[in-house]
Amino acid sequence: MLRPLIALLILSAPAFAQTKAPAKPARVVADPCAPIGQLADGTLVYSMKCQNLPPVVVSRAAPEPEIQRSGLFGMSYTSKRTAE
Fold first, then answer.
1. Which of 1, 8, 37, 65 could form a disulfide with 45 if both were Cys (CB 3.0 to 4.6 A apart)?
2. Which pTM was predicted?
């Protein structure tokens, strides 16, 4: 009689250990003109709800140096600077 009682107590212990979930905070409304993503070329994506888009800033990155493979089976890399 004692063994089934102990087994029942062990199996029901996790049910008594459960607690209430914490209350969720109030939802904060985000700025509709905040960027929601970025494209591969670096331009930002905005929501369709945004009425006043920020000005577009165009910045050109320096071109990457040309990389040539050399060595045994093309395993070595050398970078070649272009003339400016």
1. 37
2. 0.34
